Design the sequence.
């Protein structure tokens, strides 16, 4: 059955998991919001990542769920109570399918390869079939589900995040307490993010140290970011670099977004932080190892480059290298390749601003 969009009053996107996944849901929210300006457009996120969308103007309500069964059952009841007309599972996992089915929505949209696909009544074969492309980006995969049932998505909106005033204020306090000159206007800095979800995606800390020195020679200071649990890695980065590196490990997700929006450049591994930088239009150089460049590259209009060693086994789905024992794809990538990309991105973004 077709969706009668004129009668649709409530729409829900189900997007569980990580920071990058959440950031890359914003193009779909943008597409829905402009298509249905008078409808309620909501999203379901995991509670720890929901602050990424603080202040985001293309969503009406953000539902959050914790990991426990009590939280999940409570959220399922709330979704059912809200009586959504259309629910999109843009995540694909079985938990997301549970929430989609529990909604009781008349229109439940997913992909044919989802487990328990019989719980949906709108099933798209694949994003490649929709876009007529062999390789598709994560944002394109999500947008394809919307387009499949009639939402205009052909312009493929880019990701976007909001920078809130409260985040700016609290960030300034943390920068001041850290003794950072980067909190002042007109002092360029680059965010360095040397952490990733697995060793197959992490460039050597020594090479990031050389990168901080390279940036310093070009008048750009380095600000390394991570969580409190990653402080040991950032401390080693500081010890390896002859250039000063400010490290911040206590930022909230809105504060991290505000910092990224202020940065001259992002340099780091393929990670959620890279997607945050892309969504606030910060130029970026992203180092890729095992992960899929086509699927996870920056989804942005800002200047950016993806840097990687193209091996026959890349990309791979694993958290360990089964081909060489050690992740040669990321380990063999030299600093000069990254430095050249930094120069190109900085030059291009400067020209773009001047133009």
Sequence:
């Amino acid at each position: 059955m077709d969706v009668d969009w004129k009668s649709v009053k409530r729409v829900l996107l189900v997007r569980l998991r990580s920071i990058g996944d959440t950031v890359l849901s914003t193009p779909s929210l943008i597409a829905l919001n402009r298509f249905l300006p008078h409808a309620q457009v909501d999203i379901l996120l995991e509670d720890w990542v929901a602050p990424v969308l603080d202040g985001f103007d293309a969503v009406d309500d953000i539902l959050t769920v914790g990991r426990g069964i009590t939280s999940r059952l409570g959220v399922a009841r709330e979704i059912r109570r809200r009586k959504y007309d259309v629910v999109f599972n843009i995540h694909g996992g079985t938990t997301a399918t549970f929430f989609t089915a529990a909604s009781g929505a008349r229109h439940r949209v997913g992909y044919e390869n989802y487990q328990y696909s019989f719980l949906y009544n709108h099933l798209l074969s694949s994003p490649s079939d929709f876009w007529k492309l062999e390789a598709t980006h994560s944002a394109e995969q999500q947008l394809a589900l919307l387009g499949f049932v009639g939402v205009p998505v052909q312009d493929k909106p880019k990701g976007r995040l909001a920078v809130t005033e409260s985040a700016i204020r609290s960030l300034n306090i943390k920068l001041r307490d850290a003794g950072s000159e980067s909190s002042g206007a007109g002092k360029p800095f680059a965010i360095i993010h040397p952490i990733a979800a697995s060793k197959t995606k992490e460039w050597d800390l020594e090479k990031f140290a050389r990168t901080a020195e390279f940036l310093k020679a070009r008048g750009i200071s380095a600000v390394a970011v991570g969580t409190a649990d990653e402080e040991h890695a950032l401390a080693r980065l500081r010890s390896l670099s002859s250039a000063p590196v400010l490290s911040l490990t206590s930022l909230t997700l809105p504060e991290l977004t505000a910092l990224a929006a202020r940065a001259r450049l992002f340099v780091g591994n393929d990670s959620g932080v890279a997607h945050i930088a892309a969504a606030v239009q910060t130029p970026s150089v992203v180092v890729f190892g095992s992960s899929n460049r086509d699927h996870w590259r920056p989804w942005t209009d800002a200047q950016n480059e993806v840097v990687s060693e193209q091996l026959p086994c890349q990309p791979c789905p694993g958290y360990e290298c089964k081909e060489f024992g050690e992740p040669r794809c990321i380990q063999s990538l030299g600093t000069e390749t990254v430095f050249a990309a930094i120069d190109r991105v900085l030059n291009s973004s400067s020209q773009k601003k001047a133009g």
